[in-house]
Specification:
- The protein is built from two helices and four strands.
- It has 69 residues and is α+β, with helices and mostly antiparallel strands.
- The chain has one domain: Alpha-Beta Plaits.
- A two-stranded antiparallel ribbon has the order 1-4. A two-stranded antiparallel ribbon has the order 2-3.
- Strand 2 and strand 3 form a beta hairpin.
- It is globular.
Length: 69
C-alpha cells in the first residue's frame, strides 16, 4: 500500500497524525508526512482513518490489487 500526502493541500491541522500515529507524523513545521511512503498492509485501517479525517483531502491511500499492501 502507498500513502501520499499532497503538501500543497495540507494546512497542518494534525488530525491524521493524532488519529493514526502509526502511519503519519508531523514534520518540523507541523505538516503531515509519512515515512516511508510504502506502508505495511496491517496499517491499512489507520491509513484510511487518517485520510478520511483530513479536512483538505490531502492524503491518498493506494492499495494495489494482488499484493500484501
Amino acid at each position: 500500500m502507498q500513502v501520499t500526502v499532497d503538501r500543497s493541500r495540507c494546512t497542518g491541522h494534525g488530525r491524521c497524525y493524532v488519529l493514526s500515529p502509526e502511519v503519519f507524523e508531523p514534520d518540523d513545521d507541523g505538516y503531515c508526512t509519512t515515512d516511508p511512503a510504502e506502508v505495511p498492509a496491517d496499517l491499512l485501517e489507520q491509513a484510511q482513518r487518517g485520510a478520511a479525517n483530513c479536512p483538505e483531502e490531502a492524503i491518498t491511500v493506494i492499495v494495489v490489487a494482488g499484493t500484501d499492501g
